[in-house]
Amino acid sequence: MSKLREFVKLDYFTVKPYFTVKNLLIYGAMILFLTIMSANVSAGISIGTMLATMHTGYPFIAGEKCNMDALYVTLSAGKKTVVLGRYLFTLLLNICVVLAVFAFSMIVMLAYGIFGHEFQVAVSGSVLLFMPALFMVLQAVQLPLYFKFGYTKAKYTSIIPFAALMAGYMVLTGFLGGISGLDETLNNVFANRFAYIAVDAAFLVIVFASYRLSLLFYKKREF
Q1: Reduced to 3 DSSP states, what percent helix, strand and coil does the chain have, rounded to the nearest 5?
Q2: Going along the chain, which residue ranges are E strands?
Q3: Chain segment 15-25, per-residue pLDDT in tens
Q4: Predicted local distance difference test score (pLDDT) of residue 125
Q5: What is the CA radius of gyration of the chain?
Q6: pLDDT confidence band for 150 (50 / 70 / 90)
Q7: How far apart are alpha carbons 39 and 120 in whole angstroms?
Q8: Closest Cα to residue 214, out of 68, 90, 83?
Q9: pTM score > 0.85 for this model?
């Protein structure tokens, strides 16, 4: 457990330099613009989870630049610890990003009202849960590719599911009449409690299969 915790901390320190003030300001501006334009906090959450997905590959970038994989072997971390730690780090990154974006969006909306602007903001509960889960499924597709080929070889292949997801999201929201339409559709679907069970089960199966594939691929690599 201690090795797993130390590995997650190591991943954090390798990714930390990418979260510069300039990048955070750019991300904040994007979230601010979309939240105000859509009048829906869920739009900001969607962008936040997309950014978290983009940062999922950063530990692999740092690992290749500094030959960290060879260091992991030297430190006797074990390949299983590396894979499990990377998945745990990705989960924590998602949670932190969603919470930070949600808090930021709500503060923006409150400030907007304080200055006398009449502005009704929606919080789409189903979308708040759906979008992070959807992007985590995308991450579950990308991670085995990174573990098998490394970031440099897999970065172009990993763009394909990302592009497909974004295109599908744009088409779906356009067809349903925006985020509010998507939220209404999801509410109707999840009105049946068995839908929650089925979706949760499918999500867990996908993540577990992704983890097993990543472990299988990573064990076969030589450093």
Answers
A1: 85, 0, 15
A2: none
A3: 887 778 888 88
A4: 57
A5: 19
A6: confident
A7: 7
A8: 83
A9: no
